[in-house]
């Protein structure tokens, strides 16, 4: 049984332009008419929306698989009409994925989803439509469809992602509120994940300053999580933007939150980490930002605080240290519409670390490896567990399961440590998901 609708508006008529195309004929009817020729294809030009939804929301088909499919086929309709052998010709597509693709039209309730969107003022952005966020489209595994409630023009200004721990100290709360308010007052869009802690504080502070905020959910738009943030979500719908790549009625799961992090960083020019322990999920967002060629910054914390270890490690490894809004504004691209974006402290010493440029060079361009001397220096500063992980990696790389087995360390500890070592540039991940020493 599917969850109840959480209507955010009355049942008045819906803007006919809220979808990329009209939504009347059934999926089977569209498929049959597509075969009739170009005129039928033009008459039912929403076929691509339907097939994009089916492909994006089918169980077992992730964003990287979709990217591989689009490298082989022209569009989602061609994918859905492909034969078994044609699908098997795509790299890394096996029998199980072929079965998922071919069964998807029977498993994805497209009609129900579209009706929910009509009732709840929800737009659907297809990846190849003009309304899709241009910056997000740049990333390799951008979502094929994006569900959107709230402000229609959330991409007109530069955006900064703010992420951090779900259990902040009073210091972390204070810094998140201060920076968020300052950014909002400067006209910067704040992107976060509506989670407890730093995320929620950042959204709230932005709204209180009449700023523009974007919440990217790790669930469907009708299943706000955590439950205590439903009222905050309602305020964001009214004064900001709510986004999700999931079926509106999908509940969150252990994989949906890390997956949504790529959208948070992908929408943003800069990702700012405010208070994060070494095992924080916000460090995953920082790593994804680097992979997407985005800047990463962090607010320092007391060296005695476990809750600041992740941020302090990022700064030690070259992420820009942020003390106030000027440290962020000076890194944003100039825009004549927003003079403060051009702000430069020309006659003042920079507050970024001397390692900031090398961080950008060594971590954003994965084709460049750190020197042996630099690498040895990094490894010498690793913890005992991290060194154990490094020693467990074969010269030609090892799968994460192999590393866990060889080290006998808890799986969650290995995964967190590998992510952090990737951020530092000590480890890297191949296209086959093997971990190797850079």
Structure described in brief:
With 438 residues, the protein is an alpha/beta fold.
Look at the structure and give the CATH class of the largest domain: Alpha Beta
Q: Total strand count, please?
A: 11
Question: Which structural class should the secondary elements be placed in?
Answer: alpha/beta
CATH fold label of the largest domain? Rossmann fold
What is the approximate shape? globular
Number of domains: 3
> pLDDT average, as an integer?
80
Largest sheet: 9 strands, mixed
**Contiguous helical run count:** 21
What proportion of the residues is helical, as a percent range? 40-55%
| Straight-line N-to-C gap | 48 Å
Using only CA atoms, what is the Rg?
23 Å
CATH architect. name of the largest domain: 3-Layer(aba) Sandwich
* Uncertain residue segments: 1-45, 335-371
**Strand order of the biggest β-sheet:** 1-2-6-5-4-3-7-8-9
What labels would you give this structure?
Arc Repressor Mutant, subunit A, 21 helices, disordered N terminus, nine-stranded mixed β-sheet, two-stranded antiparallel ribbon
Task: Give the SSE map.
Elements lengths: L26 H8 L3 H6 L3 H11 L5 H10 L3 H6 L2 H5 L6 H13 L2 H10 L3 E4 L7 H4 L7 E6 L8 E6 L5 H16 L3 E4 L5 H11 L4 E4 L13 H10 L1 E4 L11 H11 L3 E5 L7 H10 L3 E5 L9 H8 L3 E2 L3 H5 L26 H9 L7 H9 L3 H8 L8 H8 L3 H14 L2 E3 L5 E3 L1
Parallel strand pairs: 3-4, 3-7, 4-5, 5-6, 7-8, 8-9
Antiparallel strand pairs: 1-2, 2-6, 10-11
